[in-house]
Amino acid sequence: MLYMIIIILILLFYIFAAPSSIKGTFNIVSLVLLGVLLMILLGVGIVQFFRIPGEIFIWAGMLALAYFSLKDLRRLSIKGGDKPPIPIPTINWNRVFPRNPK
């Protein structure tokens, strides 16, 4: 809480009382502090990401494997020559979720 008060006081000084010669320096310092803050948040986010249960990684891997397996199955040629590939059916969403006109 103390740091929040100090930050608010520095911002108020910057907005109302700082001379223009200091504002350029303050802009660079604030950009550096913002960059450091973003790097800290990125580090904390990575740590939190690896604290999730391992089953989620297995789930994601199985989904990726299923996607690429279905993609490869779709590319297989059909024995017997001239048969066209099996088309992917289109879904008529209006029949699946009919709208009630009022």
Structural summary, described in words:
The chain has 102 residues and is mainly alpha-helical. It has helices spanning 2-16, 20-49, 54-75, 93-96. The two termini are 54 Å apart.
How is this structure best summarized?
The chain has 102 residues and is mostly helical. The protein has helices spanning 2-16, 20-49, 54-75, 93-96.
Q: Which oligomerization state do the chains in this entry correspond to?
A: single chain
Helix and strand succession? HHHH
Q: Tell me the fraction of residues in β-strands, as a range.
A: under 5%
What is the distance, rounded to the nearest whole angstrom, between the alpha carbons of the first and last residues?
Answer: 54 Å
Q: What is the overall pLDDT average?
A: 83
Largest pleated sheet:
none
Number of strands: 0
- Number of separate helices: 4
Radius of gyration (Å):
29 Å
Question: Given the helix and strand composition, which structural class is it?
Answer: mainly alpha
Low-confidence stretches: none
Q: Helix content range of the residues, please?
A: 55-70%
| Structural shape | elongated
